[in-house]
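User: I'm new to structure prediction. If I give you an amino acid sequence, what do you actually give back? Let's try with this one:
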Amino acid sequence: MKLPNGFGSITCLSGARRRPWAVRKTINGHQKYLAYFASYDDALAYLADYNKNLVVYAPSRMTFADVYRLDMQERRRRIAAITAKNYDIAFAKCKVLSDRPLRDIAVSDLQAVIKQVSDSGVGYATQKRVRQVMHNVYRYAVKYQLLPQSGDISRFVDVDTPQRKYKKLPFITRQLNRVKAIADNEQHPLSPWAKCVIMMCYSGPRPSEFLSIQKSDVKLHSRTYKIRHSKTKAGQNRLVPISRKVSQYYAWWMARSGKTLITDDDGQPLTYCQFRRRFDKVMDAAHCHHTPHECRHTCATWLDDKGANKIAIKRILGHAIPDITDGIYTHKHVRQLKKAIDLL
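Assistant: Good question. You get back a string of structure tokens that encode the predicted 3D arrangement of the chain. For your 344 residues, that looks like this:
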């Protein structure tokens, strides 16, 4: 008997077995064996009971957590691992909603989660990420008709107005020299993270882009790396040149274990929060007061000061090029981008 899509499957395993009927289901993109039974009917009864809270069985019982898991099962295939991890962290802040049926949740319930996050001292960026999780859940529910089109109440959720504590400023040469001294001192415990600061200042990626760079996309011989995932369409799948002055730092990170260029001691990717703690320690050691995003400001400022081509700067930083002449008819070869970055 053919079962509904997403319901799971039942297969009869070969060989002499006491319980040959196996129940399988795809969970988080991987097919898993859930249980084994002596008869097909027992296996089907188990699978039906297992699915009793899923869309294929009883949509009205779907909880906020159920829909989140189903949405992430699709979303993980097309987003970076670090982005998925950040979504999971934001979802954890919605714990109070997890076991509640989606249809029973009101706007006030969603807004209460944001208020709780705000009252705990968490800023605009995290609140916005929590709200994005809500958007994802409700859009999935509307897409698969768990809710009517008007049922997306997440669009009414507000977050705090972003408060800029101070104007973003680029590094000055003296500051970066102090960071470089730490980076070049292999005995210093912060040397790897000081290298990251220099690397970001000399290529200008967003912190999230930098942390998601895959080793397979770094080409030391041609001095380029590819950023596949970005917050903007213009920033996706772009080639970024590596300055001659910092190519040895890329080689150092490439020699470490892990799939991403930047990893922890166990070869695992870092979240922004994990990276930010390490970054701040470097700033304290170098007597600086900057944020990771100011590395991007530094690169943009330096390129402009050195008279680099405006289109090349936009290509390197992943900025949109609105003018049709610049965007379509002007082609900046990688060689020209490397020429621009080597001005630094």
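You can read the tokens as a compact description of the fold. Here is one thing that stands out. Residues 128 and 316 are 27 Å apart (CA to CA).
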